[in-house]
Specification:
The chain is of the alpha/beta class. The protein has helices at about 15-20, 40-50, 70-85, 120-135, 160-170, 175-185, 190-195, 230-240, 255-295, 310-325, 360-365, 370-395, 405-425, 430-435, 440-450, 455-470, 475-490, 500-510; strands spanning about 5-10, 25-30, 50-55, 90, 95-100, 105-115, 140-145, 170-175, 205-210, 210-215, 215-220, 245-250. β1 (about 5-10), α1 (about 15-20) and β2 (about 25-30) form a beta-alpha-beta unit.
């Protein structure tokens, strides 16, 4: 895997600061926020300096029941080509549900939601990842996500789930240590156990980010400083493997550049501490192995205790130490993590695969591919489960059985709040027109109007909803909102030419008669 080094998430708000920061080897940009034909000048300048830019997608929904669409895959591939990236990343998450597969309304989460760690979900995810790999021009890496809620009836730990995903598809992993911490607080999962179960050789790079805790729930905000527990998990990871790259994420509430540089310094120190522990472990293992080899040879000269061979054993152990010190970054062997002759988890609980014989059956068995009929059934089961959960989160339907109702409520409020914030960003005129009433009004609208498309369409639908109800009450504000909606709701922006404006005004007067 290509060595990336230390990087930071590129965002327009800190673009100038990122360009001036010392020691930045690479940056990551949200893929959906980049227009291939009009790259931001800041990214162009970074690329000219040799700084690697990696597109990070958020909308494929690889963990969803539907296959990733050709349009979304083509758009992501276009961004990879425009940025000249060596790899592209996405998430192990679902972001939408419903539709034709479940014969239910299509719903958008506007957020990354967790996939159940079940055989059905794993089979669907593996097929979706393969589809994406076949469509993208560079290697794909997928990220573990943070979660507020747990799925009932899960069959694997996070480490087992990621291990089998990487084993079955060859996909790289983007390990977010902040998300491991989030899942520790919110779901009681042990980060060290997850790291011990991961296929460390599959790691493409690592994310580090901050968050905050409220009422016993950790919120992965990407808007707060990186806390000590997250850095400790990074050190633990670095004690096991030298990650090809590490990146600091910050999406909101941007501090002064000096503070970001201090956080990057803390990340480098955490990596160095882990590297020291890794070398110590390797030296101990090499010394023990040398002693075992020498002991197996047995005493050729000297007494029964083999003192005559002690100097030879010492020389061998020292030789092993020298080799490791010279290598520096040599990694621990991982063979012991796999079952003899195959994958660690392959086939566990997978059930019968049917009566296939010949080349088709042999190929399917070799790659642990589900039978087509099983694949369709798995998608339907997963689709129904995800639609039920998402409907409870965004449409107010009953919480599915087995979920923590309190946590689902926390997640639902968080989704509505995020929705209000993002709409305010993509349509900044709305908070200006509606003033202090914007947030309360939008949250009320969100309770009965789940999002069915992207955030820009959501902003237009919100404005339509208000105007159809004769709101806002202030005449001037309503006129401004109507003008804003008319300007954006047609197939093309309305012309600003005086003759066209006069024609529109005349038409409005005639319509009032």
């Amino acid at each position: 895997m290509e060595r990336l080094g230390t990087g930071i998430g590129w965002r327009p708000e800190i673009a100038d600061a990122v360009e001036r920061m010392p020691g930045i080897d690479w940056v990551e940009a949200v893929a959906e926020n980049v227009c291939p034909g009009h790259l931001p000048e800041s990214l162009e300048r970074l690329r000219e300096r040799g700084v690697t830019v990696v597109p990070h997608g958020v909308s494929l929904g690889l963990g969803g029941a539907d296959r990733p669409t050709e349009d979304r895959l083509a758009a992501l591939a276009e961004r990879v080509e425009a940025l000249g990236s060596p790899l592209v990343t996405e998430h192990i998450a679902f972001v939408r549900a419903g539709g034709a597969l479940t014969a239910s309304p299509h719903l958008e989460a506007g957020h990354l939601l967790p996939v159940p760690r079940t055989r059905d979900a794993l089979d669907v995810l593996c097929e979706n990842v393969r589809i994406a790999q076949d469509s993208l021009p560079v290697p794909l890496a997928v990220e573990n996500i943070a979660a507020l809620i747990s799925w009932p009836g899960e069959e694997m730990t996070e480490g087992q789930f990621l291990y089998e995903l990487a084993d079955r598809t060859g996909v790289r992993l983007l390990i977010d240590v902040a998300n491991l911490h989030t899942n520790h607080v919110n779901r009681g999962e042990d980060p060290a156990k997850a790291l011990a179960e991961l296929p460390l050789e599959a790691i493409a790079y690592v994310h580090v980010a901050g968050g905050f805790e409220r009422d016993g729930v950790w919120h992965d905000s990407h808007a707060h400083p990186v806390p000590r527990p997250v850095l400790d998990i990074l050190t633990d990871l670095a004690s096991r493997v030298s990650p090809p790259g590490v990146l600091l994420e910050r999406d909101e509430n941007f501090p002064e550049p000096a503070e970001l540089e201090r956080e990057l310094g803390a990340i480098r120190r955490a990596l160095e501490t882990g590297a020291v522990e890794r070398v110590k472990t390797q030296l101990l293992e090499a010394g023990s192995a040398a002693m075992r080899r020498a002991g197996a040879t047995g005493p050729e000269h000297g007494d029964a205790l083999g003192e005559g061979n002690a100097s030879g054993r010492t020389r061998e152990a020292r030789g092993a130490e020298s080799e490791l010190l010279a290598a520096g970054s040599a990694e621990r062997p991982r063979e012991e993590t796999r079952a003899a002759g195959g994958r660690l988890f392959a086939g566990d609980g997978a059930g019968p695969r049917g009566e296939e014989t010949g080349a088709v059956g042999a190929t399917r068995g070799a790659f642990d591919l589900p039978h087509p009929s099983e694949g369709r059934a798995a998608r339907e089961r997963l689709g129904l489960a995800q639609a039920a959960l998402l409907s409870a989160l965004v449409a107010g339907t009953p919480v599915p059985e087995g979920f923590d109702r309190v946590r689902v409520g926390v997640q639902a409020r968080a989704l509505a709040a995020k929705r209000a914030d993002v709409v305010a960003k993509v349509a900044p005129e709305l908070p200006v027109i509606l003033g202090e009433d914007y947030r309360t009004t939008f949250l009320g609208y969100a309770q009965t109007h789940p999002m069915t498309d992207g955030y820009r369409r959501d902003a237009l639908t919100f404005a339509e909803h208000l105007l159809s109800a004769g709101r806002p009450g202030d005449t001037q504000a309503r006129r401004e909102l109507r003008e804003w909606w008319l300007e954006r709701s047609g197939p093309a922006p309305r012309s600003r030419r005086p003759v066209h404006r006069l024609a529109r005004a005349t038409r409005r007067v005639l319509l009032r008669r």
